[in-house]
Amino acid sequence: MSKAQSAIKASNLFKRFGDLIAVNNISFEIFEGEIVGILGPNGAGKTTTIRIITGLFESEDNTDISIFNQNLRKNLELCKSKFGIVPEISNAFRDFTVWENLLFTGRIYGLSKQEVESRANLLLHQYDLYDRIKTKTKTLSKGLQQRLNFCLALLHDPPILILDEPTSGLDPISVSIMRKRILQMKEEGKTILITTHDMQEAQNLCDRVLIMNKGKIITDADPDTLRRNFKQKSTIRFQLVNNISSPQLKTLKEEFGIKQEKSGYYSFLSDNPIQDISSLSHIISHSDIDIENLTIKEVSLEDVFIDLINKTKQEEVK
Length: 318
Known about the structure:
Blueprint: E1 6-17, E2 20-31, E3 35-39, H1 46-53, E4 64-67, E5 70-71, H2 76-80, E6 83-86, H3 98-108, H4 113-126, H5 142-154, E7 160-164, H6 172-187, E8 191-195, H7 199-205, E9 208-213, E10 216-221, H8 223-228, E11 234-240, H9 246-256, E12 259-260, E13 266-270, H10 273-285, E14 291-297, H11 301-317
Parallel strand pairs: 3-8, 3-9, 6-7, 7-8
Antiparallel strand pairs: 1-2, 1-4, 4-5, 9-10, 11-13, 11-14, 12-13
Helix pairs in contact: 3-4, 5-6
């Protein structure tokens, strides 16, 4: 299998606003067809990074950015055309109808009337907005406005999509539509860059995550690898249906390190939940112990994120 083409390659990104260093000499590469999340607390430098690589902020002299192997500084308009941007706050004209917004955006991109109508009709059906084409944008719910934002960003069929908090504050139906379409666009070969505070969303959607703090990238890896390498273990919890004798409890403690919680639940930490639950079931099947309400709390990307951010704060104190 041939190696995927480089979609975005950024070297030595640096941006200062007065005394504040917003992005501190970071480098990364994103390949065609990847979904990559940029995660970080407020003020980490995520938005500034996006604005630099999309040409909205002028880059420093020693910064090198290429979009599909085209130098951003030398080919600014060409590179900008490769992006479709869905901002967190809608940039659609509120007094325009859905259709008027699409026609206006199409003219900005230099599309012919026929091209605009063809692409607009396709996108309106994909995002369940076709019955709203005559509706003024300001009367749409936030979820419908976000669907329109996707249509506007995709109107010129860009190979790269930038999503800034794409599902923030949306209703469950709109969230489901957005996430389904994001995965479909990946299948279509689009490269997608997401900034989000929703760790579960990043865990479910992203092939890789770049975690930023104080203008620096502190890790670049796929979510599953980050979770596997995390020191914290999964927690298995359950309740006992009947009383358990001291010898039986001793056996479980010796085998699994089971502890009784104040709530009455029993729990233990596990590196391999499936294997440990199988072993627990085997022991229970040869005794008079019955359990119920068994749950597994696996290590999440949020656990890893919080730990990494806290570690960088501790290192700063030192």
